[in-house]
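Structure (tokenized):
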């Protein structure tokens, strides 16, 4: 339950592609993964808690979508998804919103300069 990278550096205003690949083998309902990039300054812990309460919404908290820059869908085993982002300078937290994954370390930061 970890990303292979917990720190990413990007250049401000430059388009970047970030690919998430779920290399696990467990079914999505038991061990799905996604990649949710949040706006700088977001309370990630509160976001993760709210997300865990919304399985019907693929663990994306409806009330907090304004805190999201972009996100992948929840990925099952061997699935992958690519996000294309162009970010302004700042520190963007990211996490997996599957319940408890953030708490055990499925998170990181994108630093844009
Ligand atoms: Cu996960």
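Design, position by position:
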């Amino acid at each position: 339950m970890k990303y292979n990278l917990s720190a990413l550096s990007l250049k401000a205003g430059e388009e970047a592609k970030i690919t998430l690949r779920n290399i696990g083998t467990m079914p999505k309902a038991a061990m799905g993964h996604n990649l949710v990039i949040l706006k700088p300054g977001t309370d990630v812990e509160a976001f993760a808690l709210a997300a865990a309460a919304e399985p019907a919404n693929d663990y994306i908290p409806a009330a907090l979508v304004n805190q999201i820059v972009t996100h992948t869908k929840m990925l099952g085993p061997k699935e992958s998804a690519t996000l294309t982002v162009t970010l302004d300078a700042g520190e963007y937290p990211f996490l997996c919103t599957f319940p408890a994954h953030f708490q055990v370390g499925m998170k990181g930061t994108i630093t844009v300069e």
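Reviewer-requested clarification: The first strand starts at residue 7 and ends at 10. Residues 16 and 85 are 5 Å apart (CA to CA).
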